[in-house]
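Now for our target.
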Amino acid sequence: MIRTEALGLQQAAFNDAAREAFRPLKTRLSDLRESEKDTSGAFAEIWKCLTQIGWFGCLIPEEFGGSERGILAMALAYEELASQGVLTTFPVLTALSTACIARFANNTLKQHVLPRIAKGELKVCVSATEETAGFNLFGIKTFAKKERDHYLISGSKTYASGFDLADYALVVTRTTSLEECETRGLPKTVGLSLFLVDTRAPGISKTPLNTRGEGAVKQFKVDFLNVRSPAEALIGKENEGALSLFVSFNIERVLLAAGLLGTSQFCLDVACEHARSRRVFGDTPIGQYQAVQHPLADVKIRQEAVRLMTYRTAEAIDQGEDPSKVVVLANSTKYLASELGLKAVDAALEALGGKGFDQDTGIIQLWETMRLLKLSPISNSLILNDIAERVLNLPRSR
């Protein structure tokens, strides 16, 4: 259970509301843990509960129907949800997109979408990654060409999570080619632009990918062929989308870390209950043996450290601290949390033995997700590169 004594009264109250909202779901969330089944019903219930507590409005100004509670409140609630044994990443994509829209979009676009996002009526995914660019978003090829009062978007995206669930996609494009930027001596951060695109717009085709790791959420290859986007759908200034996007990535890092915290607690709860009740060798509970105790205790120690880091980063975002410092905190938090998640699942499997591979325990399904989150949304290796260069002032990694 999350400790709220050190948190503000508002956050504590919001956390209590989240706990009460998620409690009735506990017996039904097992459906979402079984990726082979139709999980749309369970996913809809989770979305409904998040909407009920006002989760989607936490980053939205009051004038657009939000509460402005902030990212810390969202993290607390997301930790509670994940502690039930389900880590669904799709709501995080909507939160990332919401932060980007609320801060950088024009008032016309804000008025059109933010009130409906706050009410849980709109779902938003992110369409950024491309096959040839990988993690290097500056190397993307999808291009938005300006024509009078609109843009035409053409290109191809891959690993677009939840594109079939989303009403809109935050699409990352180029409006100035990388080659032109290099010719003109412009920095690599110039030339990217963001658009909020209707996922049902003419010219869009999507192909499901045969991937695993995100449970109920599917990933897609998405092709854009002269997809018309009104100028009002541009988020931030043309060619300056990198700033809008990378600031919003901090939101994603924190919420995923909160989800990993909740997941680690779920693993501990299941493993410790089994370790107390499973008896061998003269009616001795296996939890009495250090070989079982120590990996679980190690997870608990790491969990407390990650929790402090997650809350600290959330507060830094809420308080508007220096963005250059916040990005270090956010990346560090994601790094530590993803390492914790994998250790927690591994320790639980070790304690449970063969029972851990029974899907009814809800543990083995988490393994793929935990391994994926070491690589995504940013790989831990890239985080280490960034810390080495940004903080330690070491030469750029090769």
